[in-house]
Amino acid sequence: MNFSQLRFTKAAYELGSFTKAAHACNVTQPTLSNGISKLETELNNKIFNRTTRFVGLTEFGQTLMPKISSILSIQNAIYCDAKSSGQNKRKIIQIGFSPLIDSHVFTKLIASYKMNNKDIEIIFTEDNLNQLELKLANRELDLILVPITEKTSKNNEMLLYSEDLVVVVPSQPQKSHVLVSAIRDKTFIMVPDSCGLSTITRAILQTTSKSVNEYKGKALSYQVLADWALNGLGLAILPKSKTAAHMHTQKLHKSNTQIQIHYKAKWLSKEHSLLSGLLVHFTQNVAIYLEQAYPEKTP
Global pTM? Predict the structure, then answer.
């Protein structure tokens, strides 16, 4: 049992919808549903009666909800006491990264922020999307840097940067780019869908009438994904920053438009007084550091 599960449960009860609760908690619906399900399993009791149109408390859930509200109120009071304490002098920002984020660029970007903020400690964590969302909701992280896997517009998010997606192919291609429509029927190698890349790949390739032809095996790293593609097991779609100079790649186009992957910064609350300065630093400097790292890739 953890605070995230309790917060998810309270939000689902108050809003009467798992979808609305996920939005309010700044997590994906599968993350929220899994959290509540794990809590129900641990307690060996159903908290909600669920249908496609209705979410309501069971008898056990009705008994439990006041206790959950009390626990969360106590948690919030403890955080408020800690923030107001004169002894709480340590300045820390905890940042979670998706493996898709270009860590080479962002460690340099954050190092430049630290040069003018030497009293602030930055702690990094790399994890999959669900875990990053959970840690953010549970206040174990202050900020997460992740790929955008669905179109949303929230006050607690901002676009960080975008980069080209490429297709890794087994031999030197004749053209520098390829249309999605020309490769849609090919076999594609995937990684486990924990970082968001497979979700993005399927969204690009699949249509209402045809699903993606996926290779039966799964690669556990981007390097293995590319190696398998180079050896003819299938094609692979990767951000350009995750490829190496020796790899055969083609830019991925839809019509005449280069397809890109987009990344965002996401936070739970700007009550963390240090976040605003860091986000301003990102906004002002991320393009500069990307251009330094990849001068030929930056528009």
Answer: 0.72
